Amino acid sequence: MANASGSGFSWLSLGGVGEIGKNCYVIEVEDKIIVIDCGMSFPDLRMFGVDIVIPDFSYLVKNQHRIRGIVLTHAHEDHIGSLPYLLQDLKKAPPIYGAKFTLALVRDKLAEFNLGETVLTEFKPGDDFHIDGILVQTVRVTHSIPDTCSIAIETPGGMYVHSADFKFDPDPVDGKLTDFAKLERIAAKGVLAFAVDTTNVENPGHSGSESTVQPVLRDMVAAHRGRVFITTFASNIHRLQQAINVAAELKRKVLVLGRTMVDNVQLAQDLGYLKVPKELIVSPQEAEHVRPERLLVILTGSQGEPLAAMARLANGDHRFVTVQPNDLFIFSARPIPGNETAIFGIIDDLFRLGAEVIFGVNAGVHVSGHGYQDEIRQYVKLLDPEIVIPHHGMFRMQMRCRKLCEQWGWHSSVVPIVSIGERWSVQPGGVELIEEVKSGEVFIAGNGASDISRRVINERLALAEDGVLVFSVVLSADGSEILAGPELMSKGFLQSKDQPELFDDINAAVRDSILRNKMRGPEHSLQLRNNVQNAIQRVIFSKTKINPMVIGMVSYANAVSQTA
Asked: Which residues are catalytic?
């Protein structure tokens, strides 16, 4: 197998480049594999029936004997969400390394998949440890979830640093600053390569501090004489802390809605990451007796998820709470690209119910957990790496990072634009593409017992866009004549009563396709069916420019052909 030379390492992304989500990076040092993160992403609007999207783990399954450990940078779903699916595919789970809060969420996730026996090794942000002789260093960085770490791995050619999600917040809610002193010590060793988060590379300047959100929330809640609902990511413990601080200051009780939010609030309290005054949080039953101006509700659904508490409230089918006039809803989160339609639909429904809604990036109720251009420049300059690898961003973000790096003194040749499945040799002197490995997306629906193929997704998309036409024809036993049909039935497509001439043309095309075919006995039923399908599609497209899915059956007086 091709590999990086002994003076460096190889780098591979199975997810997280050319996209935002399902981060998974494979670092190979001296033929040993260390995996950094194992995330998932959510489906876009064209992935019908898909619940989550995970990386194709074929490369890791094939090389599982070389995996020495999986290091998790933090507990967001796009960094840990596909871990159970990978472990299910491996004969033996490798050790999992993570900080306290990260492993707490992972432990619950693995228990759901009956993977509770997996070895979880906890580290504190800033700890160093060895994985089969390879030095791994962790560095605390600020982000929107506790215990986020950059990861540094020692290679024969110098240090490899993986930024993870980061920002340089000068006033973090928990008071735990980025550990610049340790980054300087790592830089002093000589950094061969630095993979940097490019999520906000298109934004000039410096990101806002998370602590700026609380005063804005306080003013909004203080000015409102009614119930206030705040929705954000259930994993954004720092945002939850600020909402709880506001409630305590203004003497409001807190009701928590949504299973994930309830679980995360309880977990963060138990671990000491969330400080909640005694008796501040009330149950749904207790909330019924709290005056509206004395209640603050924290709930899931900031991304328009159809089963989350926010969507249920907007639809009027939440079992505990109904929207009342004079309720105030605050969306304290930025929409993930692709979720805008669902979110704005819920916002419209809330307005229809008489509520007031505050949303949008300019409302002051949200700041990003990812660094802007100035922070990316600061990180790159601090480490002074030989090679910069833009990751965690769309293609345009990778390109923007490369152009900025050129302005900062790096040649474009040492700022590779990598794609999923590309395995690169990284060594002193530059980078080189070694090979392309099997990679891509795996679609998971329901309980994940089986994945959905791209073919199924494409078929669902075709059905959604143009509908389906089903045909049925019965032939004599030898196929010499048509005894019945063709019968035509459409769903999501034109109806015969609306377009009789079109359906007459389809009928004629079916009969002509069958009768012109000299080989139409039962032994040729499959080919005959395919010919009929093609004939129908040609007629429909020529007349309407619509391309519905066509399926059907050619049956015989004493036999039935295969169906499509």
From this structure: 197, 370
